[in-house]
Amino acid sequence: MAGVTTRRQAAAAQQEKNATTVNGNAAPVMEQENAPRDILDDLDDDEPAENIFLFYPNLIGYARIILAVASLYYMPIHPRTCTLLYSISCLLDALDGIAARAYNQSTRFGAVLDMVTDRCTTSCLLTFLASAFPRWAILFQLLISLDLASHYMHMYATLALGGSNTSHKNVDKSRSFLLNLYYTNKNVLFIACFLNEAFFVGLYLLSFSSPLLSPSLLETVPPSTAAAIHQGAQVNSSILSMIFANPYSAGALEMARANKMDSFWPWVITGVSFPVMAFKQVVNVIQLVKASRWLAEGDIEARREARRIAKRRQE
């Protein structure tokens, strides 16, 4: 047993070997960053293992996803429940950042999880609005495309040209003053994101409460049609008949009860948040343009470097 050495003893022996004298002079001890990987692994054995997936901010992120999926379930039939679940999911977006700073648990996984959750939830809501307002479907489709494209290109440009350790929120003022303000000022970021979501939530509520935007809410069923419905005829005068075969079923009646709401507050929410929503779309456009130019600048520099290397080889 005396002749058997552990990995930690081997690491200590290697460090002692690095400190031996050369030509009578003591050689410098190998710096940690230049040490062999297995030695560094042994030196870290005493540190407790961390599970990134169970960090508090990431647990909040999982809760956001669960709430968002639940809101999607209620989205076509119960606007109040959907709005409550969706709003809580959005508000937790600010809480995970606070938890990350408070517990020193900021991670790249958490940042990506947060951004992906934001993009997916907003896209799902806009998809519903496209079906609720088919005349404006192309506008909602363009907003989804702009949101996804601008964030993807911005993230890719940051990783490719800024380095793997650079956050997509670290935008230099020289590149874009507006993007720098948007990403570095937490108040601006929170207000812009919150009111942007509030605008689309307001539109969602108006699809259930405003006859101006949803004329089918004003339509009534005449007696002759009501008699036909009793006999099993299909009617396309309201959203109920599109979802339920029997407009007088328990599900249809529950939906009718849930949809009895006044349109005043949805109009207020939509009107107040509209300017901020427009600002957010401007930010997305600038983000897309700046990321495209940054990538193009990187391509130009890479091509120049390739030509220099080719010229040296020819010489």
UniProtKB/TrEMBL annotation:
A GO term for molecular function: CDP-diacylglycerol-inositol 3-phosphatidyltransferase activity
Name of the protein this chain belongs to: Phosphatidylinositol synthase 1 (CDP-alcohol phosphatidyltransferase1)
Chain segments annotated as transmembrane: 59-77, 188-208, 264-283
Membrane topology: Multi-pass membrane protein
KW Transmembrane helix (keyword) present: yes
Compartment(s): Membrane
Family stated for the protein in its record: Belongs to the CDP-alcohol phosphatidyltransferase class-I family.
Key words, A-Z: Lipid metabolism, Membrane, Phospholipid metabolism, Transferase, Transmembrane, Transmembrane helix
Region (Disordered): 1-29
EC number(s) from the headed UniProt entry: 2.7.8.11
